[in-house]
Amino acid sequence: MVELVALYDDAGRPTGEAAARARVRAQNLRHAATAVVVRDSAGRVYVHRRTGTKDVYPGLHDFCAGGVLQAGEEPAAAAERELAEELGVTGVPLRPLGEADYADDRTRYHAYLYECTYDGPVTWQPEEVAWGAWVEPAALLRMLDELPFVPDSTTVLRGWLAGLLPGPAPQPEQPERPEQPQQP
Predict the structure, then answer these.
(1) Which residues contact 152 (CB under 8 A, 6 or more apart)?
(2) How far apart (Å, rounded) are the C-alpha atoms in residues 25 and 94?
(3) Within-domain flag for 48
(4) What digits encode the pLDDT tens for the residues 129-146?
(5) What pLDDT digit, counting tens, does each position of 105-116 carry?
(6) Residue 167 lies in a domain
């Protein structure tokens, strides 16, 4: 059975056309994909390493579960499907994080971004996931600079991830002081 992937235009809208997944990859056709960040109730993020047999970014680390939208599939449904397939996570509400666009010489797509909170067991799909662990956001940000991570998740969600870190308390603005005239 051939998996048909919905094609998208440069404005991030479906064109109404579909192509076989192999053609989408071979010709780097613009499509749509989902990315779901899985966090536990302690705020940690689930990080995994992709298997060496993946068709895009094999063997690299990722902090999102996700994949391409099939023809006729809604983004939230695709996100739920991919989350269940890759990590065995089901029955959790997804919170939208927005949309983004990503392109490189391997893939071009419009991304639908989500997060969820999950405290149950993670069950890897053996064809897709080779390793995984819960990681504190600060440690994950360091890992992004030290280990080979997929460039797409890193590009579209690094800023969001950095926003999870506690920052310094905002300082109140100081009113400007008027200049004092010079004494003669």
Answers:
(1) 35, 57, 102, 104, 107, 109, 111
(2) 27
(3) yes
(4) 999 999 999 999 999 999
(5) 999 999 999 999
(6) no
